Amino acid sequence: MPSAFLSLIRRCALGLAALTALPAHAASFGDAFYLFVSHPASSLITVIDTREDRIAGTLDAGLAPVQLEGSGDLAKLIAIDGRTPRIHLVELTTGRVVSVALDFVPRRVVLSPDRLKAAVFSPEEERFALVDLLFAVPLGPARRHPQLHDLLFDRWGRTLYVADAGGIERFDLDAGRPLGRIGPAGAVLGLYPSVSSRHLYARSADGAIHAVELEASATAAGPGSFAAGEGVARAYTNATGTRLFLPDSAQRRMSIVSPLTLETQATLPAAAGLGHVYSAWFDTVAFVPSAEGPAVLVYDQERAARDADIPLSGPGGRGTVTPDGRKFYLPIAGEPRLAVIDAEGRRLAKYLPLDAPPLAALMAVTFGICH
């Protein structure tokens, strides 16, 4: 059955459930224009209406999230606190919280591309588990995996790629068994998706980034690798998959690599303390928060050039780009406000005041996979 048809069925079912479960006085935050802001040591999530840049209400996650993710099709937020053996699902249409009990404390959450499943894991405990986000139930028992570093789903949500000290192990989710290894030998520290999901990028312990082919593709290079540099924490792709960005805090530089040839197209000046890369405004600009300054570094993707920085009043946290790519929201650490950046104009539009300092900002529907 086509994925678009399944998505329509899910949305209709959720809408009917919301009509029966939503009290007359309750707010519904299931639309794509809402922004969700978490706060340090607080279970309350501030909801921002991005059309008017105003606080629209709050949600209570039932725990203080150290990681918060969103599923637009399911109209849910997914939260863990890194301290308790559970994952919380917050329904955006009703505000109801469903707790899924685990037998270990999850430290990270990775969502499947369709946002219907979550893989939660703890590298410290060398364990991972799968959760069905629609029905809010575990998919089988938790599993041990020695020297577990990272996880990534295939594009169908049927195979899980597990990065460990020996490379990448494939795990069949339907059969519940390993399928063998792919990619480079030796320790793999991180796995990052491509836009098409026909290949993935693996960061190995020697500092190289490997392109690992999962399906034959005419729009990406075959298996290969390139040196990333000691200060590169991960590789980011823009929303259309035409460029890879490698922010290097140690070398204070930004490398832009072609996914088709794996050749470096440009090496541009950067700064120390670089954060995530956020592609915006039809993949014409990339924003990179830097603790140095602090500021947001601005890169013109079409010219492969660095533009004028956007000064900030404090270091930025995890931010997000609106689905239309027009705005970039960035939490300011230690200050009760959110930076609102005009992506087309490449400027700070304003600071949005909050009731408490923010930790992270996200939307259940996003512009791309870079953030």
Automatic annotation (TrEMBL):
The superkingdom of the source organism is Bacteria
Q: Which UniProt keywords apply?
A: Signal
| Leader sequence residues | 1-26
Give the protein name, as stated in the record: Uncharacterized protein
Q: Which organism is it from?
A: Pseudothauera nasutitermitis
